[in-house]
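Following up on my earlier thread - several people asked me to post the actual chain instead of describing it. Fair enough. Here it is, all 333 residues.
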Amino acid sequence: MNMKTNFAAPIEETIGLLFFQKIEADETFGKFAIKPLKQGLGTTIANSLRRTLLSCVEGWALYKIRFDVFGESDDTTILSSEFESIPGVKEDTIDIIARLKHLAWKVDSEERVCEKRYEFSGEKTVYSNDFTDNEVTVVDEEAPLFSCGKDTSFAITIVLQKGMGYVSSDQMPREDEYGQIMVDPLFSPVKNVKFTVSQTRVENRSDYEQLLFEVTTNGTVTPEDAIMAAVKVLILHFEAISGIPLGNQDTSSTSLEDINRQNILKNSVESLELSARALKCIKSIEVNTIGDLIEKTEAELAKTKNFGKKSLDEIIASLTELELSLKKEQNES
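Reply from S.P.:
Thanks for posting it. Predicted structure:
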């Protein structure tokens, strides 16, 4: 009996139809679809993935800062707290710290802690890109931070750390160093996650679910990379619970897009939601998966009995939605 007409079909058969689709994506926003899912699994998967995205994806954050003010006779004064002002700087120190804290930091380092020192002097407006160098990148390049007067001369030492979620400064490692100002770091690069679960049809059944996911990041990681990181966290936990090696494949050099394509090609042609006529025609020539289908040319499909232009247009439209296409003829460039 066909799986989709059998409500009690094993979950493995449903997974065989499952695919992940990228609807739109850029550096900070992505919209994705996961379907078809057994009834009830849409919300279950969405809640787990959303919570993991918001709390368990690693990012860099400011957690410690110090201000050294240079005097005329080469003497240096260290600000004792965020409530002291910097001579010649218009903004309050506490406001400068708040602006630095909310910048999106990205560090090219294998280490988990990065300390940097920046010196400022003379009349100028300091922007976030003044903190970008060959190791540290600030994504918000045009954000103004503070204004210096002509007699201003001071240094800012910042300490960035890699971590997850939100951590109170009381829980961060500290040293008894005069002038050290602790900051509550917000590590998560994921700013917002929304999802909706709706019904979707598979052949003659409409009680399957489609999960639509919208992920917004701060630009230090892409939405695709954030999802990959969250999925890995979940896999590691389920692996520990089950004792089954679920995530032993090396995906460090494989993009989410490549993995999605590989998974889609393994899916049955039933997942394309074609008409009964088109589906019957392609299955008659032993086309069972999407991978089998894209190996066929238009001419090869046209030779199939009862296969017409309407069926061809239907298949092309379904493949285009997945960013796939039929095989080109040899004489096509």
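The longest strand covers residues 58-70. That should answer part of your original question.
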